[in-house]
């Protein structure tokens, strides 16, 4: 259970669910388990054994896949806590590196712990030169997520010295390596797409300043990182660092539950994140703005969104869990306006269009009645765009941030001695048993 100060608080199960099979009259009681906060869960582990049935819940709409102490979301109230700390406080007072430490270790670091952790991450920023050469095998217009997921999976071929998943020290080294190297891998993917020389990391810069340096510096001239750009990026990374059992995190857990090496598990997470219903949404927001073109076309576009036959969605709006507002969107909206004011929305009419679309949709009954609010990715794409980060790199930036959460969840699972391979069951609706027909008679 999550800690509050030094004490562990556990709410004891207070009720059970009685289940009666109406066909056989067989009864059983299913225990209800309570977390620190949030809804109780019905423990159905004995259901199949006692009643020979499975539960059916496509999309995990009502299923808790695991117990976890890392992140808490209340979708109705718009609450997001990392290890108990509200996202608003972390966004205002913390840094991505401190948040990564918190997610991995469960507590905020003291000064010495933070300095040690920062130094560990800085020391691991370079990637093996052979790994770097692998980028040349990709076509220049390969999607960076394809490169990142491929290179992350390939890391398992490089670090045999520390890949025993049952060794806590090996797991710690892995955590430092992957968090440190993701910006370097991302920047290498970007430079490869431009045909520019790779820029080596600078360990005297902080995490986000170094990332921007590797993205934008070229060997032939000096490059100064804009402090507001580094600050905006740090905020985005904090907001995206974890989000409990989302699709990519669940993918990392499922892949990792087989005992696969952690690089393979994180690579699976990168691939899951790529989809437009998940991490690809911020890229899709910009594509959508481009397709709308100008503000006059907004009503026509929204009419299409409301027409179910069109299959068009207002990208960056709606969320599986947040049905009130996305607290991350509230925080990032402010930064978005700050960045646009400094970096100039005038150069980019799409950004102005985004602001107008948000304003109109928030007053529209279709979205109000369905509780569809802008999610974090409505604004993140606009900020990335204002920072000069190309659209195809947006999801990669998300992956850099979410790596901290993925690793924390993978660690939590692997260090639990009772973890099991994830193996869902199904409701089979295919043909019943039938006999093979010879091809001459088909
Ligand atoms: N635009 C238009 N209508 C929408 C949208 C949208 N963005 N999102 C939901 N709806 C409508 C649905 O059509 C449905 O309407 P109905 O009741 O009339 O049939 C209703 O709202 C409920 O929608 P569901 O699809 O059931 O909601 P679900 O929780 O499954 O979907 C999702 C959540 C996938 C995020 C969805 O809102 C969506 O596709 N949004 C756009 C993509 C996006 O921004 N994704 C980023 C999520 S945040 C992240 O990953 C960091």
Could you give a quick summary of the protein structure above?
The protein is 48% helix and 6% strand.
Protein described:
Helices cover 48% and strands 6% of the residues. With 442 residues, the chain is mainly alpha-helical. Helix 4 (111-123) crosses helix 7 and helix 7 packs parallel to helix 8. The chain contains 18 helices and eight strands. The protein is globular. Strand 3 and strand 4 (27-33) form a beta hairpin. The protein has a three-stranded antiparallel sheet with strand order 3-4-5, with no helix packed on it. The chain has helices at residues 47-51, 87-93, 96-105, 111-123, 129-134, 144-154, 168-194, 207-216, 227-240, 247-256, 262-273, 281-292, 298-306, 327-343, 349-362, 365-369, 376-386, 394-414; strands at residues 3-4, 7-8, 16-20, 27-33, 41-42, 71-74, 79-82, 85-86. Bound molecules: acetyl coenzyme *A.
């Amino acid at each position: 259970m999550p800690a509050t100060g030094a004490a562990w608080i556990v709410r004891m199960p207070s009720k059970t669910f009685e289940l009666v099979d109406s066909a056989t009259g067989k009864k059983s009681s299913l225990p209800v388990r309570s977390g620190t906060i949030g809804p109780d869960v019905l423990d159905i582990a004995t259901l199949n054994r006692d009643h020979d049935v499975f539960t059916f819940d496509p999309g995990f709409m009502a299923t808790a896949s695991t117990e976890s102490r890392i992140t808490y979301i209340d979708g109705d109230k718009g609450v997001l806590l990392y290890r108990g700390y509200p996202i608003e406080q972390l966004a205002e007072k913390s840094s991505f590196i401190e948040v990564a430490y918190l997610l991995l270790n469960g507590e905020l670091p003291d000064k010495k712990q933070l300095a040690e952790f920062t130094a560990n991450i800085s020391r691991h920023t370079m990637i093996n030169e052979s790994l770097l050469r692998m980028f040349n095998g990709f076509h220049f217009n390969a999607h960076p997520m394809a490169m990142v997921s491929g290179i992350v999976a390939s890391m398992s071929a490089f670090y045999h010295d520390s890949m025993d998943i049952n060794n806590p020290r090996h797991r710690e080294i892995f955590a430092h390596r992957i968090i440190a190297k993701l910006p370097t891998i991302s920047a290498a993917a970007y430079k490869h797409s431009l045909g520019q020389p790779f820029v080596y990391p600078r360990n005297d810069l902080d995490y986000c300043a170094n990332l921007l340096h590797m993205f934008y510096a070229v060997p032939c001239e000096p490059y100064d990182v804009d402090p507001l750009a580094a600050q905006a990026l740090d905020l985005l990374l904090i907001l995206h660092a974890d989000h409990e059992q989302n699709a990519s995190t669940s993918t990392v857990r499922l892949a990792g539950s087989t005992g696969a090496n952690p690089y393979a598990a994180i690579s699976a997470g990168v691939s899951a994140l790529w989809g437009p219903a998940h991490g690809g949404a911020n890229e899709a927001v910009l594509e959508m703005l481009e397709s709308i073109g100008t503000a006059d076309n907004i009503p026509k576009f929204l009419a299409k969104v409301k027409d179910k036959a069109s299959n068009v969605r207002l990208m960056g709006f709606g969320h599986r869990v947040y049905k009130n507002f996305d607290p991350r969107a509230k925080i990032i909206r402010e930064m978005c306006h700050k960045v646009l004011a400094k970096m100039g929305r005038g150069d980019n009419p799409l950004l102005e269009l985004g602001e107008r679309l948000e304003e109109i949709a928030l007053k529209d009954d279709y979205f109000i009645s369905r509780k569809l609010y802008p999610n974090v990715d409505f604004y993140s794409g606009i900020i990335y765009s204002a920072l000069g980060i190309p659209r195809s790199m947006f999801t990669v930036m998300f992956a850099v941030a979410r790596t901290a959460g993925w690793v924390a969840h993978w660690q939590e699972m692997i260090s639990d001695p009772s973890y099991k391979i994830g193996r869902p069951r199904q409701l089979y609706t295919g043909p019943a048993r039938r006999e093979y027909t010879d091809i001459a008679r088909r």
